[in-house]
Amino acid sequence: MTAPRLPFFVYGTLLRGQRNHALLAGRVRSWTAAVLPGALLFDGPGYPFAVADPAGRGRVRGELVGIAEESYDLVLADLDRLETYVPGAPGNLYERVRRAVTGERGAQEAWVYLANEPLAAQLLAHGRRIDGGDWPASR
């Protein structure tokens, strides 16, 4: 089964001005400021991890990225590779999940890479949380 063609919510190294942004160059049809509600952001080794907030009150700031139709399959494969995500594989560092994000047009579904469950539990217990959920502002 093929993945639905949703936009991506990015919150770390894929943001404009960050080191992996070039991966999206020339393949994006829209960039919109957006918020992922119900999530917390933690600092990792040079990149952040978003985690579902057990209390449901956290917010992660980022951008909603609409991918050009002709580039969608390549961008999906490139982002999965960057995030070391293989659908259904055990041991993924991130999981690509569908979540509602809020942007200029209100709430809409997007793909989001969240920390896998064991890593999320470890981060919630011992991680360095990024207050305000804004990774570039925390650096």
Automatic annotation (TrEMBL):
The Gamma-glutamylcyclotransferase AIG2-like domain extends over: 8-136
Q: Which CDD domains does the UniProt entry name for this protein? A: GGCT_like
Q: Check the record and name the InterPro entries matching this protein.
A: AIG2-like_dom (IPR009288), GGCT-like (IPR013024), GGCT-like_sf (IPR036568)
Q: Which domain of life is it from?
A: Bacteria
Protein name (Swiss-Prot/TrEMBL): Gamma-glutamylcyclotransferase family protein
